[in-house]
Amino acid sequence: MNDMTPISKVQTTLKDWETDQEVRWCPGCGDYAILKAVQRTLPELGADPSNTVFVSGIGCSSRFPYYIESYGFHTIHGRAPAVATGIKLANPDLDVWLVTGDGDGMSIGGNHTMHLLRRNLNCQIMLFNNEIYGLTKGQYSPTSREGTSSPSTPMGSVDHPALPCAFALGSGARFIARGFDVSKELPSVLKAAHAHKGAAFIEIFQNCIVYNKDRFDDFAAPKGAEQSQLWLKDGEPMLFGSEKSGGIKGIALDLETLMLKVVDVVDGDWQGAGVIVHNVRNKAIAHMLVEMPFGPFPMALGVLYDDPRPTYEDAVLGQDRQAREGKAADLGKLLAKGQTWTVSGTAGDPA
Length: 351
Fold this sequence. Notes:
This protein is of the alpha/beta class. The chain folds into two domains: 14-235 and 279-320, Rossmann fold (3-Layer(aba) Sandwich), CATH 3.40.50; 237-277, no CATH class. The protein has helices spanning 31-45, 80-90, 102-108, 110-119, 164-170, 186-195, 217-220, 283-290, 312-324, 331-335, and strands at 52-56, 71-74, 95-101, 123-129, 175-180, 199-205, 229-232, 239-240, 246-252, 258-264, 299-306. It has an eight-stranded mixed β-sheet with strand order 2-1-3-4-6-5-11-7, sandwiched between helices. Helix 1 packs across helix 6 (186-195), helix 2 packs parallel to helix 4 (110-119) and helix 3 (102-108) packs across helix 4 (110-119). The longest helix has 15 residues, at 31-45.
């Protein structure tokens, strides 16, 4: 298939993406909801199971490839980005999804994640963030909050937590989004990530029912948490709350300093309140959104940044085509190039 030939869409249902494998996570784990969201989204994308690959590392989230009826690789700890890169370069027409966790992707795999984002490989990266090491029985992870009590931090973690979206943006990612496991908006976030040509990074907050239960209930509880969620949509004002009575305003202190502030919106007059209109291509605003402290501010969710640029595989394969242009493949000539020797004689002949 050449670069100008679009990948044809196929008709599937949720059942077509379910495997015969028993889904084995702890009862109540947020991974079940994410799995169903992905399986429901893939038919809407027109995705083809025979053209789709799920790649994972190690961790609870990394069981994912077993439960999607497509091609899949359950790789080694932190190295899923390296394997995904090889797959995409070998066959750039494949639709590659990468599944990782806050431990797998931000600790041992942090450098691999960084380089995949920096290179801008065309794939979707779903990072499940439960702020704990679940598979290895509850140790604190790179994203655990300060004070987290765990077997490895019995007196509370003193580490300042990593922010996956800030990490991704700093690594050069051109698509950053957030969602959470049981959100009805998660499929729309996945669709936006899939539509982006390049490395699309999605942080998905995921409830670990055993070792970090209800950690995200302050903004992700099934009921009553709307006031703490800021769902961002390109070209729309940054409003939050069930009645859209809160908004985010930008305040310029001087020519070099811009700050965000929560403001009340009265009678729907968001313009009068100075509420910012979201622009997914504004990287400066994206930086502030990914580091916006939850508590004083709502949790920024949805697509925070989306500004495509040429992909890694297009550049690599373009070089390959350029190198081969006007040349015929000749293995014998290649082997004889440079300094060569001809060895004559028969077996056992000292000559």
